[in-house]
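User: These chains co-purify. Model them together.
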Amino acid sequence: MNKEIAIHLKNITKSYPGVIANKNVDFQVNKGEIHALVGENGAGKSTLMKILYGIEQPDEGEIVINGSMETINKVETAINLGIGMVHQEFTLVPSFTAPENIGLGQEPKNSKGLVDWKGLNKSVMDIAEKYGFKVDPGLKMIDASVGVQQRTEILKTLYRNANILILDEPTAVLTPQETDELFNVIRTLVNEGKTVIFITHKLREVMEIADRVTVMRAGEVQGVSETKNTSITELASQMVGREVFLQVKKDEADPKDEILNVENLWVHDARGLLAVNGVEMSIKEGEIVGIAGVEGNGQTELVEALTGLRKASRGKIMYLGEDIASSTPKNIRRKKIAHIPEDRTNTGLNTQLSIWENLIGNSYFRKPLSSKGIFNLKKVAKHANKLKEDFDIRSPNVSLKVKSLSGGNQQKVVVARELSEDPTLTIASQPTRGVDIGNIEAIHEQLVQMRDDGGAVLLVSAELDEVMAVADRVGVMYEGQIVKWVNPKEVDQSQMGLYMAGVTE
Amino acid sequence: MEWIEIFDISLLRSLLRSTAPIAIVGMAAAICSAAGVLNIGLEGKMLNAAFAGVAASYYTESMWAGLTAGVIAGIMTAVLFGLLSFTLGADEVLAGLAINIFSLAGTTYLMRTLWGQAGFFSDPKIVGVEPIHFTFLEGTFLEPFVSGFTYSVYLMFFIAVGLHILYYRTRLGTAIRATGENPEAAEDAGINTVRIKWLVTVFSGLLAGISGLFLSLENLTMFTEGMSAGKGYIGLVASSFGNATPLGTFGASAFFGLGDAIGIRLQGVYELDSRLILMIPYALTVVVLILIGIRQRLKVRPVAIPES
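Assistant: Joint model of the two components:
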C-alpha cells in the first residue's frame, strides 16, 4: 500500500505563556482518508489545527503539504494551498441565502460590473450536486437548521477549492439524524478525492466514520491507529491516560441525610438544543458524588441549572426539601450552596480586580466585612489574609490583581472564597483544570475535608482519574443522561471508558 | 368638502419638498445602519453643511461655492465621527452626540461672532438655489407634477434607486450588508470591515451635507440656529422603519413628508395654531417608533427545540 501523504506536520512545538500546547507533535494525514483527531479539551488539537490553518505560528517544526514544505503564516495561504476549515462557530450572514454566503467577497460579475447572482447560484448548485448536497438556493440562513448551516459552511470551503477539509467538532451542534447526514456528506467528499480531518472527542463517531485516528493528550500525540485495529476502550485509555493515577487519602464515606434530590431534570443549552434530558440524582451529607463523562455531554448545563445560572426546562431540584429549580443564583448561594465554576477566568473570578475583592465576592454585603453599605477595611483585610494563609495562596499580598497569579493560585482564590462560607453543598466543576499537581492534591484534600465535616459535595470533572480518586459514588454522563452509577472502587478505567462512550452493556 | 380641497397637486408638491431633506439624510442613516454603524451624528453634519453653505455663498456670492462648501463640511464632520469611533475607539453613540452638540454650539457661535446676528442670518448676498423649470414640458399635464423643484427633490429619487442597485446588485453592497450583519463572516470572506465602515460614514457625510444644504440654500436662503431641527434624528427613525433599505427608508420618509405637507395645508384651511402644526413631524416620529416596537415584537420567534 503506497499512500500519498496530504499533510505532514513534523515535530511541532507551540507554547503559550505558562502552557505547552503542542510538544514535538508529529501528525500525518494520507490523501483521501478520513482522519480523526481526538483528545480532551486542552489536549492541543485545536492549537495544532490553528497552526495548519495559519491562525497560529509554531515555535518549532515543519509543515509539509502534498510533499512540499510550506510556511503558513496567514489563513489566505492555507486557503490557497487548498485547506478549508469549518469552525465550531459558523461565520454566516443570517439574512443571506446559501449562495450569497458562499460567494461573499468573490461574487462573479457580469459585463456591467454588477453581481451575476444567477451565475453564482448555478456554480454553487453545480458543486452541491457533485457532492450530493441538498441546497435550497432561496433559503435564508436565519431560517435554516443548524445542519443546513453547517453544509453551507462546507460548501463555502469547496467553492474556494479546498481539497483538505478540517471539521472542528462538527457533530457537537447536530442532532443524531443530522450527524448521519453529515457522515454521508463526508463519505461523498472522500469518494470525490477530498481529504477530511475530523476533530472530535466522541469515540463512537471515530469508530464509525474515520479510517485512522490520532489521539492527543496534554499537548502530545499518544498514538496513531487504524480504526479497524483499535477499540473505543483502547482509545479512551489513550485519551484519558492511565499513567497518572492520583492517590487521595480518605476514609470510608459515612453518608447521612439527603441534601439534594434531582428529579427528571431537563435543560436546554444556549443554542436551544437539549443538553440534559432526564437526570436523576441524589446527594447525601457526608459524601462526594462524582460526575464523569466526556465533556459536552450536558455536564456544564447540569451544573448551571443546579446553581441557578440557567433555567431548567423541566423537572425538580429538591434541596433540603425545597424546589430551587426556578431560584436565582443569589438565593441559591444564600442557602449555603457553593459553586466552583468550570470557567475560572470568566465565571469564577474578576481577574482585573484584586485578590481581596475576589475573596469577599460572596460575603462583602455582610457584617463584619461591611455595615450599612460601607466596608470595614480592617476586618476585610483580616478575613482576606486569613483565607490567603489557610488556602496557601502564593502572593506577596492580597492587593495584587488576580490576573497576576498563576492558574493554580487563581483557582485557590475561587476555592477559598467558596469554601469559606461553610457550605452545606459544594458544587465543584472541573476544580483542578490547569492546576499543577501539588495544588491539585490540596484542592482534593479540601473537598474531602468538606465531606468529613458533614457537607455534601458534587464533583464534576472530565478528568477520569480525579473523579475515581475523590468521589465516593460516580455517575457517568452521556448525551444528557446519567447512564450508569458506579462505585469507583469496583470498576476499572477501561470499563469506565466504555460507559463514557455510552456503552452500558 | 374641505378635506377634498386639501388633496390636490399643491399638496403633492409640498409633500415632495418636505420629503427631500428627510429622505436624503434617512438614506445616509440607512447605509450606515446596513454596515453596522449607528450614526447619531447626522444632525450635526446637516447643521454644519447648512451653515458652511450659507457662509460660502455669502462671502463669494456664488451658489456653487456654497454647495461645495456645504458638502465638504458634511464630509469633514463625518471624518471627525470616523476618527472618534473607528480610529480612537470611542462609543459610536457618544461620538455622534458629541458631534451634534458641538455642531449646534459651534455654528451658533460662529454666526454671532462673524455676523453679529443672533437667532438667524439672512442677507441679499446669499445666493440660493433656484428651482429647475423644464421648458420642454411647458403646457403639458406633466408640468405641475415634475417641473419647478430644486435639485434635491430630483436627486432623492436617483439616490434611492442608485442605493438600491448598490445594495443588491454590487459586490460592495453585499459587502456592506455582510459587514453590518456578521462582521466575522465578512472578515472571513476577505472583506476589510473597517474600510467599509469608513466608506459608508464618509458617504453619509455627503448625503447629510446635501440634506443640510436643502434647508439653508434651497428651501430658504438663510441660516437659523439649530435649523436642522431634529431632521437628522427623524432620518434615523425613517431608516429604522424602512429596515435600513433604500426604498423602505424612502417610503418611510415620504410618510413623514406627507404628515408635514398635510399640516401645512391644514394651517391654511382651519387656521390652526402654527405651533400645533410644527409639532406634527415629532408626533409622527413617536407614532412610527411605536409601530417599530410592535413590529419587533411580532418578529420574535421561539427557539427551535429538536425532537428527543
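The longest helix of chain B spans residues 193-219.
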